[in-house]
Amino acid sequence: MVIKTICILGGTGFVGHSLAARLVSEGYNVVLITRNRERHRDLLVLPTLKIIQANVFSANVLRNVFDDCDAVINLVGILNESGHNGKGFKRAHVELAELVVQACRETGIRHLLHMSALSASENGPSHYLRTKGKAENLVHKSANTHAPDSLAVTSFRPSVIFGPHDSFINRFASLLKLMPGFFPLACSGSRLQPIYVEDVTSIILKCIGNPVAYGKRYNLCGPRAYQLIEILEFINDQMGLQTRIIGLNNRLSWLQAAVLEFAWNKPFSIDNYNSLQVDSVCDAAMPAWFGIEPKYMEEIVPAYLTHDKHEKLSLFRSRARRSG
Ligand SMILES: NC(=O)c1ccc[n+]([C@@H]2O[C@H](COP(=O)([O-])OP(=O)(O)OC[C@H]3O[C@@H](n4cnc5c(N)ncnc54)[C@H](OP(=O)(O)O)[C@@H]3O)[C@@H](O)[C@H]2O)c1
Question: How far is the centre of ligand 1, averaged over its atoms, from the C-alpha of 78 (Å)?
Answer without folding.
Answer: 6
